[in-house]
Amino acid sequence: MGRIFLEPELYHENQFKQVKRMSIGGRRKSVKGKRKPKHAHLYLAGPRVGTSVGDERKYDRSLSAIKDRALKGDAGISFAGANGPDEFRELSSKVYAKLAKRIIEALVVDGKPYLPRHGYLHVNFPHVTDKTCNLESRFHFVLTAEKPTKLPWLLQKMCGKTEFPLEKDIVHKDGCFVAISFETTATLMRPRDELIVIRKLMPLLTCAYQK
């Protein structure tokens, strides 16, 4: 796999058995003199072909891989795209890459930790065609939850709602919405951890889903 330099380093390799992985982190020399991550600070997996909500999550190997890393205390993001394997593949790949980059940059711009310990993001991209959702500027990023969950005060004030929009509702909603769910493998979700993630993603987030 090739390298994609983002900030400070992004290395793409086949690290998981069946899931492609990208990671941001420290580097060490390999046998051939190239440098590879010694330990990643942020793991990226996907995108899965097809949405990843509800029961679909059980079969999402990208999500499973990221959960495994989170159990070890590593931050990560799993991505899923609504497009099928042959549906506008080149176009959707370019669009998804640009959207993923915006999310990653929002997390890393202020430095580590990129996510709270044991935390990870699960991201669903909408369907892309040559006529709809084909430009980065058309997308809205929405912080969602898999199950009914109370919104932290910061988003209650911003959106005028008391609960997160459900992941499945945003994923299946008409329009160009990117559903971002922050989750944890810890026993309980700490409110302060939610606030850390919200503050990092705030420049991206929208309440446009209410319209």
TrEMBL record:
Protein name: Uncharacterized protein
GO molecular function, one term: hydrolase activity
Superkingdom, taxonomy of origin: Eukaryota
Organism: Ampelomyces quisqualis
